[in-house]
Amino acid sequence: xxxxxxxxxxxxxxxxxxxxxxxxxxxxxxxxxxxxxxxxxxxxxxxxxxxxxxxxxxxxxxxxxxxxxxxxxxxxxxxxxxxxxxxxxxxxxxxxxxxxxxxxxxxxxxxxxxxxxxxxxxxxxxxxxxxxxxxxxxxxxxxxxxxxxxxxxxxxxxxxxxxxxxxxxxxxxxxxxxxxxxxxxxxxxxxxxxxxxxxxxxxxxxxxxxxxxxxxxxxxxxxxxxxxxxxxxxxxxxxxxxxxxxxxxxxxxxxxxxxxxxxxxxxxxxxxxxxxxxxxxxxxxxxxxxxxxxxxxxxxxxxxxxxxxxxxxxxxxxxxxxxxxxxxxxxxxxxxxxxxxxxxxxx
Length: 347
What we know:
Blueprint: H1 9-21, H2 27-32, H3 35-39, H4 47-55, E1 59-60, H5 61-72, H6 76-80, H7 90-104, E2 108-109, E3 115-118, H8 120-126, H9 135-138, H10 142-160, H11 175-200, H12 203-216, H13 223-229, E4 240-243, E5 251-257, H14 267-280, E6 284-289, H15 295-301, E7 307-311, H16 313-322, H17 340-343
Parallel strand pairs: 5-6, 6-7
Antiparallel strand pairs: 1-3, 2-3, 4-5
Helix pairs in contact: 5-7, 10-11, 11-16, 14-15
């Protein structure tokens, strides 16, 4: 039953909880929960509603996403919530895997591209009136046990690459979520390693790193031109100037400071940099640090006529990773999906 838009909050929360685990929420669980994290069921909790919809008739995957979002009373933010990669919505991904596992167990079948329907085995399973369908139920099927045994070993290998603090639970997360959680862990580790190595090198190395990064991002023309401009001191709070384009039609002034992680750059340093820009008649500046910027410093640049970008250590490391500065590809993994067009027959 769809939830009307005017439903009160406590009724909506009860519906969500019942849809997810068959039990109404307690007052304590409602007050302590993260609305987004708990409102989107994991893929196992979606198996029963997906099978129930298939029992009503042949379904299209795209339609099922909207139907279940309505039944769960999900907000627009929850419906649009993306995986860390930003390439797929969480709800769509989890429904996909719920459908995929049900198909592997023989409870669903795919009569055509992007469509699925219930099998006789699926109808018999629904006739048991189970409160929940999960992997333990699917394991009754010999074909699913064989599939899950092979898949489980691969998922375990992925989970082992992540930090124990990430709590990757293969029972509640989809394979994509497990892989992306491991990837995010490796990215965090690499980001920390980059900043650590920068701190251990000389100021000249830091200047050259910024040259390499800016050129990789398309600024400064060639390394030769960029290196000749950057690193000049004595301009009163400006470490250098670099061309914004290859012709030198506009310029960006740069200030770089290597600060320890616990030592943020404050407003006075940023204000001095901005004062230098005013004195030079400049309109654009980039302040780079290996540390962070104080809230007062960030607030200060929001109200300037000049365009000043504050690039902290985390952002610096992210740009280095994105533009392959100081890092190299260790391993590339290509994932393939079923080509529905290949198997589509003319009707």
